[in-house]
Amino acid sequence: MTERPILRVRGLTRLYGRTVACRNVSFDLWPGEVLGVVGESGAGKTTLLKCLSAQVEPTDGTIEYDTRADGLVDVFALSEPARRMLLRTDWGIVHQNPRDGLHMGVSAGGNVGERLMAVGARHYGNIRSEVLDWLDRVEIDTGRIDDRPDTFSGGMQQRVQIARNLISRPRLLFLDEPTGGLDVSVQARLLDLLRQLVASTGVAAIVVTHDLGVVRLLAHRLMVMRGGEVVEHGLTDQVLDDPQHAYSQLLVSSILQV
Amino acid sequence: MRNPVLEIHDLAKTFRLHVQGGIEIPVFDGIDLALHPGECLALVGASGAGKSTLMRSIYANYHANGGRILVQHRGTVVDMVGAEPRTILDIRRRTMGYVSQFLRVVPRVATEEIVAEPLRMTGVEAAAATDRARALLARLAIPERLWSLAPATFSGGEQQRVNIARGFIAGYPILLLDEPTASLDAANRRIVIELILEAKARGTAVIGIFHDREVRDAIADRLFDLKPGELAA
Amino acid sequence: MTSDETTAAFGAEHVAGYNFAYLDEQTKRMIRRAILKAIAIPGYQVPFGSREMPLPYGWGTGGIQVTASVIGPDDVLKVIDQGADDTTNAVSIRAFFAKTTGVATTERTAEATLIQTRHRIPETPLREGQVLIYQVPIPEPLRWLEPRESETRKMHALAEYGVMQVSLYEDIARYGRIAKAYNYPVRVHARYITSPSPIPKFDNPKMDRNPAIQLFGAGRERRIYAIPPYTAVESLDFDDYPFTVEQWPESCALCGATDSFLDEIVTNDKGGRMFICSDTDYCAGRRAENGEETAA
């Protein structure tokens, strides 16, 4: 086992005025581990993810990330350049709405290759071949490399987003409702792809979703949130098959069995 | 005698159903058992006595309310009750396997990859793991043309055998078997019995639920009757 | 450069009722401060309080304010538009400064101390002591992808320039080459990515280590930036798709130049056309030289 978590969160709290978005969240995330965060709309999942990915500053608490150079450092104590550098190299964010994560006016290839160019890649042919490789890995017809994402289906747009993030070989991936708004058949395909990519790249991930099927398939560990607080936290199968907290039981029992 | 690989002390499980007014359903209390390498313990008891619940509690799929589940893992003894999730995942990866009654089908993944996965997780190279998976599938009489397909459309018996192959491939020191032969014909049942006996001979400790008397007689060294407190010899 | 005394001394020579070079002294001082800062940080866009000018935005309000702030009574002014001294815009701006300052004007690049330009750099090499003032419509090279000013400022501050390379990537993917023919992005002093204004990329190499001071004014966008003399200016490209300039199959039909930027002129409706120098002064100078040689 690795001796050091990749992300260490303690007492994370974010208030909007007097409204609690999330309160006193603590956990460790280990390399290669996938943590699911579930709960109904308004439970604070998205705010938590935004804090964790350094997009929103927490009101209280600490988020430490295991940087390659200096080990665990407080993300919000980093300089802004260092933090932004993390966001486009070591971290990846897959947004619920592809419009937030893709440049719709730029070709799929340009979107996927941007991170390479951002860190100094200057050989078009090499960039191109790496982009083609990644489009293939996310099962997008490589013949569409020069098409704009707004000509793609929702599921394809999500896969372009995933390729765009994974191309920089991140160590930590944030996924916000990655299957939200997709058809059920497309969801299954995307989830399976994500599962394989997470396993093959060894990236650690935090997945926020209201879909328990998503976390059943992807997450090793689960946090159930309600009203901004974590009400239950444990192994995914344990939380789903034997939920302890009244709210977790309600959540699990609310799924239609088909 | 060697040290037990699995030791259970005073294990208790009660379901508390908050959504139904907080009623409590006690399943068992005060379970004590020990399992040594190469030994096979068969759980018996009436339907609803808590056999599957005990298995799932041992695997930490269910949350034990009290007691200890001591497992020999990586040269030390770990208590599964209250262990960190990642410790439990590591135990599941290396020490304790679980063959459920039904295969939880992963969409779109080829059968041979599903079977090879547990072996790969222990660090075995992908090609070698796939070879081993194919050998097991062949032994379990899964036709070769099915190996590269996802098992979603397989028959119940085929899915069950895929599940068994997945449970046996990594050679876990502890194996939990929940009705592994339930939907198998006589020929396949015999193959599974052989597999279990071979595993025992290699030192695997087995704990399982076997409704089929023939299977149970062939492999079980002891019976554990799930009327709390009673241990049949 | 001017001071209040010299302005007063030369006041008689320009049209009455206006301050020297139209702008009031306070405004000129404010703009000069912006220019000094711009020179101190090559390629960095300095905000300034752009004034209303007696011509519409897009006609060179930024360039005029910069010129008005640096022009002095001893200067000799040249104004070009697309390389030509005789187009409406160039003529008007030249007349404007002649009226409001009384300074000498010229069409000869070599004689000018100040050259205000729209869309070209003169072919005649510039020298130390000359100031080239560009009119800039859109000073922000990152604007095509990022509409938020707060974000582009941050991108410049942190030198996050991946998207600029993406724009070149898009060109190669679509057209098989970098298709930008003008306003081709440059990196100044290995730091700021900067818009060269809509000059043809043919002129980009002239910006590099140029002995003259290059000032850029964007009136509507309220930005001033600069390239000090002898500063490295690199055109962005890929290792396997290096930056190149335009080439023409013909030489100038008037002067025979093969080294200048050529405009295509349609001569009739039967497909007749000719190529001539866009830089009228350069072309005229060469013709004069050739004429002398022929006479001799």
Summed over residues and divided by their number, the pLDDT of chain A gives a mean of 92
Beta-strand portion of chain A reads 25-35%
End-to-end CA span of chain B: 18 Å
Largest sheet of chain B, in brief, is: 5 strands, parallel
What share of the residues of chain B does DSSP label as strand, in percent? Answer: 25-35%
Count every beta strand of chain A, where a strand is a DSSP E run of 2 or more residues: 10
Q: Give the helix/strand class of chain B.
A: alpha/beta
> What's the story with the biggest beta sheet of chain A?
6 strands, mixed
Poorly predicted sequence stretches spanning 5 or more consecutive residues of chain B: 229-233
Q: What class would the helix/strand composition of chain A place it in?
A: alpha/beta
On the 0-100 scale, what is the average pLDDT of chain B? 91
Question: What is this structure, in a nutshell?
Answer:
The complex is a heterotrimer of chains A (258), B (233) and C (296). With 233 residues, chain B is an alpha/beta fold.
Explain this structure.
The complex is a heterotrimer of chains A (258), B (233) and C (296). Chain A is of the alpha/beta class and 258 residues long. Chain A has helices at 45-52, 80-88, 98-101, 108-118, 124-137, 154-166, 184-201, 212-218, 236-241, 246-253; strands at 7-16, 19-29, 34-38, 60-67, 71-74, 91-94, 172-176, 204-208, 221-226, 229-235. Chain B is 34% helix and 26% strand. With 233 residues, chain B is α/β, with parallel strands linked by helices. By secondary structure, chain C is α/β, with parallel strands linked by helices. In chain C, strand 2 (76-81), helix 4 and strand 3 (104-105) form a beta-alpha-beta unit. Chains in contact: A-B, A-C.
